[in-house]
Amino acid sequence: MDVTTRIEAAVENAVDKVACGDCPPLMSSAARYAVFPGGARIRPRLALAVATACGDDRPWLTDAAAASIELLHCASLVHDDLPCFDDAPMRRGKPSTHLAYGEPLAVLVGDALIVRAFEVPGEAIKRSDDCRRALDVIRIVARSAGMPRGIAAGQAWELEPTVGVGDYQRAKTGSLFAAASEAGAAAAGHDAEAWWTLGDSLGEAYQVADDIRDVTGNPDELGKPVGRDAELGRPSAVAQYGVGGAKQRLKRLVDTAMDSIPECPGRAELKTEIEVQSRRFLPAELIGHAA
């Protein structure tokens, strides 16, 4: 099974079990709308890549970890797009969930996806002969969702009168990338904390690239509006460093991520995979210069 098929199967299985006949029909429909079709699924790809590099001897737990991280990400998008936050009309090339289904249902669906993100690795305990690994995954997921550096805190930083762009991006975006790398390692029985720097650096790199696209990108190609950072007065790498400085920072972050990969059986293959995935968000002039 290729990576894309494996991820989609894991996410579909996670959603199918709850978006079922016992669930309010509109809620089921809205949940599927928020999750499918997905974007690049970068976070679950990272989780699978790390687990594979570490041996992936509990593939069912790896799949649960990957699905859990993606459900959290999808939930964060639903909430991020709400009128009380970004008031974004488009997401992934279609109307935002709150425009398609209404604000109340969007709030509930976002909440339900967050809860489901904890439930999925919990279900894996029944199959695993190593409950500690599953519990580690749940702990990692929980830390990435709340305070002080999870996605909830990342959203809250937008409400503060002042915030450093690094603190904001580490919580807003980096937390789920760090969780993906740590959860992938934990699922395969490796030291999760050793993998934090990889995910944290890639997460900040992805957010810096998103900040650059928000200034230079095409909304039709991105599937969402551009110019929102400046319009909302949101912290961004471009505002702090300028476009040129943001591109230089992006390059350094990718280099840091590559250099931080711990020793593991598949280290060389993982570096190659990260380089390939990084090309998805690196500006054209930086491609070929990444480590």
Question: What's the gist of this structure?
Answer:
The protein is mostly helical. The protein has one domain: Farnesyl Diphosphate Synthase.
Protein described:
With 291 residues, the chain is mainly alpha-helical. It has a single domain (3-286), classed as Farnesyl Diphosphate Synthase (Orthogonal Bundle). The protein has 14 helices and 2 strands, in the order ααααββαααααααααα. It has a two-stranded antiparallel ribbon with strand order 1-2. Strand 1 (90-91) and strand 2 (94-95) form a beta hairpin. The longest helix is centred in the last third of the chain and has 24 residues, at 237-260. The radius of gyration is 18 Å and the shape is globular. The model has no long low-confidence stretch (mean pLDDT 91).
Widest beta sheet: strand line-up:
1-2
Task: Quickly count the domains.
Answer: 1
Distance between the termini: 29 Å
| CATH homology-level superfamily | Farnesyl Diphosphate Synthase
Over all CA atoms, what is the radius of gyration?
Answer: 18 Å
CATH top-level class: Mainly Alpha
Give me the secondary-structure topology.
Layout: H1 3-16, H2 25-35, H3 42-53, H4 59-80, E1 90-91, E2 94-95, H5 97-101, H6 103-124, H7 131-145, H8 151-157, H9 165-187, H10 196-216, H11 219-222, H12 228-232, H13 237-260, H14 267-278
Antiparallel strand pairs: 1-2
